[in-house]
Amino acid sequence: MALTLELLASRLGCEFDGDADCLITGVATLQAAVSGELSFLASSKYRAHLAETKASAVIIAARDRDACTVNALIASDPYLTYARATRLLYPAEIHSGGVHPSAVIDDAAQVDATAWIDAHCLIGPGVIVGANAQIGAGCVLDHDITIGRDSRLMANVTIHGHATLGDRCVIQPGAVIGSDGFGYASDRGTWVKIPQIGGVTLGDDVEVGANTTIDRGALSDTVIGKGVKLDNQIQIAHNVQIGEHTAIAGCTGIAGSTHIGKHCAIGGHVGIVGHLTIADGVQISAKTFVSQSIHEPGFYSSGTPVELNARWRKNFVRMKQLDKMARRIKMLEKTVRKLSNEV
Amino acid sequence: MALTLELLASRLGCEFDGDADCLITGVATLQAAVSGELSFLASSKYRAHLAETKASAVIIAARDRDACTVNALIASDPYLTYARATRLLYPAEIHSGGVHPSAVIDDAAQVDATAWIDAHCLIGPGVIVGANAQIGAGCVLDHDITIGRDSRLMANVTIHGHATLGDRCVIQPGAVIGSDGFGYASDRGTWVKIPQIGGVTLGDDVEVGANTTIDRGALSDTVIGKGVKLDNQIQIAHNVQIGEHTAIAGCTGIAGSTHIGKHCAIGGHVGIVGHLTIADGVQISAKTFVSQSIHEPGFYSSGTPVELNARWRKNFVRMKQLDKMARRIKMLEKTVRKLSNEV
Amino acid sequence: MALTLELLASRLGCEFDGDADCLITGVATLQAAVSGELSFLASSKYRAHLAETKASAVIIAARDRDACTVNALIASDPYLTYARATRLLYPAEIHSGGVHPSAVIDDAAQVDATAWIDAHCLIGPGVIVGANAQIGAGCVLDHDITIGRDSRLMANVTIHGHATLGDRCVIQPGAVIGSDGFGYASDRGTWVKIPQIGGVTLGDDVEVGANTTIDRGALSDTVIGKGVKLDNQIQIAHNVQIGEHTAIAGCTGIAGSTHIGKHCAIGGHVGIVGHLTIADGVQISAKTFVSQSIHEPGFYSSGTPVELNARWRKNFVRMKQLDKMARRIKMLEKTVRKLSNEV
User: What is the ipTM of this complex?
Assistant: First the structure.
């Protein structure tokens, strides 16, 4: 899509400075942009790149305006405005309403006339697909699933477990929503499956990454709050609840029945054990092992530093001696105190 | 499904106490249950909830019977009985035998007349699908695969590598069984693929979680013992063997040729390196890094505690100094011993 | 495939010793091999198995030749020769060119006449499929994708994001290439998606494991160098670059914009945070947490040792006291020095 600088500024609700008719056709970084492209200065520390940019216009904060020698869009938050400008210049690919002839739609499904169902989908009985929703090729929605309006399921997504997705959700390829939770009762050493009969609820504007899995609840629902963003390869176990606008990076796993607060930011490869409570506004750095509830907002971490294997081996051995080392220090302190008194 | 209390008790092989004709239509927790629903008291510590439950009946141990004011099913293991009652009240969704017209079945495949093959499946030559097996939509079984009777593959499952699945297996959506193992020989800095020609064997009653991957063996088979339960997003490398009735939680990875014993319980996000042996009856807590074999049953762990990032940074730095700290303690002890003798 | 010893030796470019007409029909380990099978001795430490092997021939280094009592193929690197022999004896399963009638091919796609498109694929507009490429059942290539010649996509692979795959790539089932990167701008506590408009480039001879995910770049491309081998369940975030011939084991996650060098070997379950640089020739052991750039080749590690939970708990508590322990040691040293001077 091509837009003039004036029209872009108007759509983005910000002022511009320069040639109103300058035609913008794309977005790129300051270093990579060519003529016709829009760039952005997200932080003043990159001001040096402004002098050399070949961008036709730059989204910039008022305080950096003087350093910009090309057309400018003045924004209080240039990074946020870049996100919005990109959406205007690269609108999401939307099919007009219809059903691909190879898709299988159950008679007892309700697909809005404006929704698109792509090739080789299976839409089972009791499935409701809202207005303008886009169901990518190879998706399977078994039965009694609700997809909100303007939601987009990319290819090969599987939705089971009576899941309900809000409006404007985006589900990346290979994601599985509503698989059975991992619930078994022990019967003298063998496992008896506990049928998982709860559902899954995703609020509006939830994004689920590629190959991420979200289990249905055992009895009640697994609940993902509105605006939650989940990266790729995340595992959300049964009966987890995630508060609104929390973001979680890739490969993180959250065990059963744990409740995560609102507006949390959780790094990649984090493991959170089951039945915990994480407060609102908690940030957790990558690869942290969360084995107890976190009741106060703040920034939390665990883990050990990377070092050359030869050095690490020496420290690694000592980790098994830590408690003994602490006791030896205590004993030394006691002896030294005694010695000090005697001298 | 609706069953009377008397019929439920009879099917579950337990005694009941109360209205034999009370109709039970579902299962819920003590707090959430409404009239017509069955609940359970898995532990005496939740007895307080008994007084307020609106459940029509409760599965309960004899010792807690007196605290129950509604109909009761008396069970020696209420949680196990709850698992079985749930299966009776919510029978697995089974299609009657047949093949969806959009599925592609090779002439050289043998699909039992009582099995169901759903939409857009590919069942290749040499595939055998047993009685009452259910193959969900979008599944691909390339060739020379055997699926035991009463096994259920949910949607978008891929099975390659001459895999053989036992009876009553359940494979959640997106799982991949029989992908190539990660085997390469080095040729002066480039990698030459070692064709993976082994197979995969799953015993009876194995469950495989959503998006879990199990590689075929390099030469011989990868073997998953009967009754093994694998959660979501687990990676099982080539030639791994997992003993009967072992359960493994989500996101755990097991490297090539490692042998896991029977009746193990392995937490989530555990990493087990290759060519190890883990004894029967080993329990491993979440996020543990297993870098050596475990020869004795017991409960094993590794990892560091979560703390506020500011405090963690201080401790994190010290982990690289652990060996030096241990040497300094030893030196101090020597000096202090000498001093003590001199004073 | 069956080949005589002489023909095998000729194809592999190595000498043989024994019956030129001996027919070889398969490969197995020294212990498992039966008559007609070829085995290999990768390391002299397994020489003891040579005496008992029932293999009809063994690939062996010249230095071990005397210990071999059966036919021999003499190779400078027996393991590498085993890899190549296996490929000769078990050629990749290749369909002849064509399109399965259930596949959907857009009119604006270019599929080479020698390529094979299997059942229930969707090949969108602008997709180019090269000579002899094999696209497995259920694959979705949305649009503007290029697949190089002789590349093989196994079943249920999804490719989006204008991805370009080189020649001879192998993509295991369930892999997702070109999903949206995890990019959002914050707008007063809610997340605004940054449309991901970059692509993905895979060089020649790249292998991608089952259910591995590779995100498209935000603005420029995510780049996987030629000869890179990725195991299962790996997550590669947007704008990551991986140098040629690097191999990465399962469950590892690499956060956005990190650049990995050439000829690296990265273990399983490793987490590498974003915006780092890892030098060429770096080896990283399993489960390492890489939180800073690595500028020198070498072998790197982090992590804590597995031990009995009861002991681990005692050490685990001390990890929070490490900095204090270090300060106490320093204080002790100071006091002891003073005492030594006084005595």
Answer: 0.97
